[in-house]
Amino acid sequence: MEVANVTELSRYGCFVQTPTPLATGTNLAVKIMNQGQIFAATAMVVYSQPAIGMGIAFREVKSLFQGLLEDWLRDLLEKRGGPAN
Asked: Which of 3, 37, 40, 58 has a Cα at 20 to 30 A from 64?
C-alpha cells in the first residue's frame, strides 16, 4: 500500500502524485480518503510520468462509491463557484 496525493479527480479517474508510478496498463485497486470517507474502485494506469505520478482510469465502481464520488465532485464545484446541478 502506498499513500499518495490525488489531483484532477473526475468521474472517470484521477492523477496520483507519486515518485514511483506504476507502468501503463497496470491494474490496481484504489482507495481515496476525503474527510473520513473512503472511495474504492478497481482502476488501470493509463499513463505514467517517471518521478511525477500516473493517470488512472476507474474501471469498476460500485454504486455506493459512485454516489460518494458524485457528492465530492459536486462539493468541489460549489467551492469553486461553479454550477451545483
From this structure: 3
15-58 per-position pLDDT tens digit: 999 999 999 999 999 999 998 999 999 999 999 999 999 999 99
Query: Which CATH homologous superfamily contains domain 5-79?
Result: predicted glycosyltransferase like domains (2.40.10.220)
Cα 71 from Cα 36, distance rounded (Å): 14
DSSP characters over 34-83: ETTEEEEEEEEEEEEETTTEEEEEEEE--HHHHHHHHHHHHHHHHHTT--
Please say whether the beta carbons of 52 and 32 come within 8 A. Answer: no
